[in-house]
Amino acid sequence: MRALPRLVWTAGLLLGVLSVSAAPEWLGAPEPPLLAGVTGAAEIFDSHQSLFWGVEYRPAFRCCRLSPWLFFGSGKHNEFYAAVGVLLNIRLGDRWVLTPSFGGGYYRAASGLDLGFDTEFRSGIELAWRHPRGFRIGLAFAHLSNGSLSDFNPGTETLGLTCAVPLDFWHRRPATDSPAP
User: Which residues are 108's β-sheet partners?
Assistant: First the structure.
C-alpha cells in the first residue's frame, strides 16, 4: 500500500507541471486553472456528522471535455484524503456550472472515520454560481467508498460549500456581452 501515496503525489506533481501557465491551444482550455476550498459535513446520513475541509486544484486543460482534479482534505479527527480524478464542467446558462466528478486516492483514518481500506474512491457533483471574473461559489455533494476492496466498506457522504478562485484572478477582466469598440 505504500506505492499508492507515491502514485497520488506523482500524479499531482505531473498535473502541476502541466498547468503552470495557461494551457496550450491543443488542450482546449476554456477556463483558467482553479484553486477551490471546501468545508462542510461528512457522514451526513448518519446519526452524527463531523466537520471536514479540503483544497482542490483544477488545472486549465482538458481532453475529450474532461478536466483533471487533485484534492487534499482532512477532518475533525485528523483524517487525511489525497486523490486525483476527472471532472466535467457543464454550463447551465451564463452563470451556473454543474460539475460531476470521479476519482480515487489514499485515505488515512487516524482516530476518525474508518472507511475500511486505504484506497477510497470519490464520486461527486457540484452546482456553482460563476462570477464574471471567473470565481465560483457552490454546493458540493460527494460519496466516498472503497468499492468493496475490503470486507468492511461503510462509505460516507459529504456535503460542503465550495469557493473556487481562478489562478489568473488579478489579471482577468470581467466578460462583457458586447464587443469592444
Answer: 80
pTM of the model: 0.75
Specify the length of the chain in residues. Answer: 181
CA distance 43 to 157: 5
Q: Is 15 helix (H, G, I), strand (E, B) or coil?
A: helix
Give a yes or no: residue 7 inside a domain: no
Counted domains in the chain? 1
pLDDT at 15: 54
At 100, the pLDDT band (50, 70, 90 cuts) reads: very high
Tell me the average pLDDT of the chain.
80
What residue numbers bound the domain in which 152 lies? 41-130+139-163
Residue listed under C-alpha cell 483524517:
79
In b/e form, how buried is each residue of 61-77, taking b as 16+ CB within 10 angstroms?
A: bbeeeebbbbbbbbbee
Query: Is 144:122 a contact under the CB 8 Å cutoff?
Result: yes
Chain position carrying cell 488545472: 59
User: Looking at residue 70, what is its pLDDT?
Assistant: 95
Q: Which amino acid is at 71?
A: F
Residues 58, 1: Cα–Cα separation, whole Å: 26
Which DSSP letter does residue 75 get? E
Grid coordinates representing 143 are 460519496
Report how far apart the first and last C-alpha atoms of the chain are (Å, whole number): 60
In a domain, 171, yes or no: no
